[in-house]
Specification:
218 residues, 7 helices, single chain
């Protein structure tokens, strides 16, 4: 947002920037695409990797770890882009504000998952925080779409419905991951990743459409 001065009062006013919304919105979507592509590339290149049995985390260790890491960092930036957009266009009350902070923290968590490299290689040196990061990620993904849903309805009822649906779907689905046998948890983790990306893409689409509406060309 950019402060401008009203000639009548001299007070600053704030105006949304549609170009910024469109730019960050499209990057948020692009980051999801990069993440998906890098995971698929790593699935093909990493030796002895079974994408049904092995998790995405397993791709982030070893000789080809940089492939998965590129995708993880790109998705982390997508989450931070959503946080920046939500702060730029505040559409709600305390729930929206919590969502801003939550998406920023979620972006940091995903970044740390990629940066720590303490998964897939049985790393147990120092303080191993991967499990704690996963739990925090799971909790945030359960509540963040719901937090943003009320404000999203101001741009269209469909956005609110999708976000609530994704929140419910994640809440019901995520705990099952910890109960699955290792032979299928890789496939299930990818399913959970699709839910997370759907939340990002829904919000990104909202901001892109809002930006185009402000420009009068959508």
């Amino acid at each position: 947002m950019t402060p401008e001065t009203t000639p009548e009062t001299g007070e600053a006013k704030v105006r949304e920037r549609p170009e910024l919304m469109i730019l960050f919105g499209w990057y948020a979507i692009l980051g999801c695409v990069i993440f998906s592509v890098m995971v698929m590339v790593a699935d093909l290149i990493v030796p002895d990797h079974d994408w049904i049995a092995d998790t995405i985390s397993d791709l982030g260790a070893g000789k080809y770890e940089f492939i998965a890491d590129i995708g993880i960092y790109a998705f982390s930036a997508s989450l931070i882009s959503i946080a920046l957009l939500a702060a730029h266009v505040h559409l709600g009350n305390w729930r929206w504000s919590f969502g801003i902070v939550g998406f920023a923290v979620l972006g940091l968590i995903v970044f740390l998952v990629g940066a720590r490299n303490e998964y897939g290689d049985d790393d147990n040196e120092g303080v191993v925080i991967h499990s704690y990061l996963v739990y925090a990620l799971g909790l945030l993904m359960a509540v963040l779409p719901w937090c943003m849903s009320e404000g999203a309805r101001r741009c269209g009822a469909i956005y609110g419905k999708i976000l609530v649906g994704l929140s419910v779907l994640w809440t019901l689905s995520a705990p099952i991951f910890f109960m699955l046998p290792t032979g299928v948890d890789g496939l299930y983790e990818r399913y959970l990743g699709l839910i997370a990306m759907a939340a990002v893409i829904t919000l990104a689409t909202l901001f892109i459409k809002r930006g185009h509406n402000m420009q009068g060309d959508w």
